[in-house]
Amino acid sequence: MSKDKPELPLEQVIAGDCVEVLPTLPEKSVDLIFADPPYNLQLQRVLYRPNMTKVDAVDDAWDRFGSLAEYDQFTRAWLTACRRVLKDTGTLWVIGSYHNIYRVGAILQDLDYWILNDVAWIKNNPMPNFRGVRFTNAHETLIWAQKKRSARYTFNHHAMKALNDELQMRSDWNLPLCSGKERLRAAGGQKAHPTQKPEALLYRVILATSKPGDIVLDPFFGTGTTGAVAKKLRRRWIGVERDPGYVALARERIEAVQSDMFAEDQLFAFEDKRSLPRIPFGALLENGLLQPGQKLYFGKTGNVTAIVLANGQLKHNGTTGSIHAVGRALQNAPCNGWEHWYFVDDQTGERRAINTLRELIRKQNGQRAPES
Q: Which of 63, 107, 195, 280 is least crowded, fewest Cβ atoms below 10 Å from its Cβ?
């Protein structure tokens, strides 16, 4: 890095306003951003439980704005600052409630972010609506967006599937609120931060959309949940926080996180199958793993079959095409032929997915996912 370019303050909590701090960081230097901005809750009165104890609601100065226009101006400013430091291949997460998330989403799109998903964090233990005049607000919404539409971004699909007992992870996440020993307390025993997020939430976000060594930025760092989880998962991190009390708590908290720097990298890095070298279906014929005229089965137990042609296509009745095209015609839906077509193993007599033959060729060639 040249002398006239700013250095990245890695593993640091920067005291200051993110709108002022982010322009001092190098452009296109961050892989992932998680933002938990003020929600602009617009509380009009003190809330009480039925037993007349006061509800510990969010009434801090940092969550107060004079108008929706003022909040929109603030939102546009910090999202613009984030866009500048985010790599073209980077993504951003922002969390909010019904008070603000729709305004944030519209401004995201105005600034040319491309929304990939919205995720509903469904709280297992939400605060009830004590007045009984509305539904209990039992979820918050996360928007996941990429900086540049169609750019290649990180999504560890198979890692998330493994985390979810081999089921594809959905966009509704059932997780409890931050409580118990995880909830930081001030000297008097009250919550140190009113909106501290659970580490389980950040674990999913960071594990799903970054790789070990990636730089994770949190422009509203609070008490440092993002940094604590990033450290555990071997990601680099930067936090920006304007409240001196929160800055001190975050630094103390992250310093206490135990991270085994001698643990093997494979504990934290997962193979991205989309990055593996491409193996054409015809290579299975060229390597003698399949033969022209051989019968393939559509599904592990089904009776529908197709014949392998010498040019690497399949033929089923009057349909001829690739493993994907013929599969698509059979089920009238998108089809990954590598996972849907099966051959009979001569040694065991069992059906095996043709993808196992593709992996055999990769192993023989010593091919691995390219380094980032």
A: 280
